[in-house]
Amino acid sequence: MIVFDVETSGLDERANGIIGLGAIMLPGGDTFYHEPRLIESLKAHPKALEVNGFTEEEIRSKDRIDMETTLQHFSDWVVKADDMILAGWNSTFDYRFLSAEYMRCGLRWPFKYRVIDIQSLAYTVMRIRDQWTPMHDGVSTVGLNYTLKWLGLPKEPEPHNALTGAQCNVDVLLELTKMIEIVPVIKLDEGDGDNMGPLKQLSLVGPASDPTGLPPQAVATAKANSPAETGEGESTLDNLAYLKWLEGQS
């Protein structure tokens, strides 16, 4: 797996370009990081540069390696992976920019057309375990820094770069996968309405150091949503780790 992140000069892959490309290979942890020179015809948005901590002079400097060479080095590096599937946070954004740069440079795209989105994984774990995510105007706002805090991890440094972004993605991915203890086979014809059927077997646990089996940030939420606190009887989607701990306290 290649966990990657890009820093860009704006939000439109047609008008803006990559100014930082970072990636970490799993397993193993081998890293890749380049700060390529922005292609001359592309634009830079001041707000994007503020987030990335670069000036326009820096991203257009002749001292920076050109984009074509950066991508050639990246292609040579990724072939060492045992699985070249890409993974990232809100990965469609990074995927669009990376593929646009390959196309502009006339280089062969070394990947297939599947990508793992770590944000989707984080959202799913939060909804299953806590039955809640932060919302704004009817849309979930699960961001990287929120997820890092939720997992008890340090927030991403500011200004950040593509390699620190990739490392944060790896940290989140590893913590989320630790939380998944049992993933049952789910048959679509089982369960109806509020009865989730085999989903009740799904156990999401947190760091072993916490007696509840939950990350510290989620203990209060788990208690508030438990049948013992709500008085609603059996919950639709039990957190087995919490219930086991609760039984031990009685």
What are the main properties of this structure?
single chain; 250 residues; Nucleotidyltransferase, domain 5; 10 helices; globular
Write a brief structural summary.
It is built from 10 helices and 9 strands.
Describe this structure in words.
This protein has about 250 residues and is of the alpha/beta class. The protein has 3 domains: about 1-115, Ribonuclease H-like superfamily/Ribonuclease H (Nucleotidyltransferase, domain 5, 2-Layer Sandwich); about 120-180, no CATH class; about 195-250, no CATH class. It is about 40% helix and about 15% strand. It contains 10 helices and 9 strands. The strands form 3 sheets. Strands 3-2-1-4-5 form a 5-stranded mixed sheet, with helices on both faces. Strand 6 (about 135) and strand 7 (about 140) form a beta hairpin. Helix 5 runs parallel beside helix 7 (about 160-180). The longest helix has 18 residues, at about 160-180. The radius of gyration is 21 Å and the shape is globular.
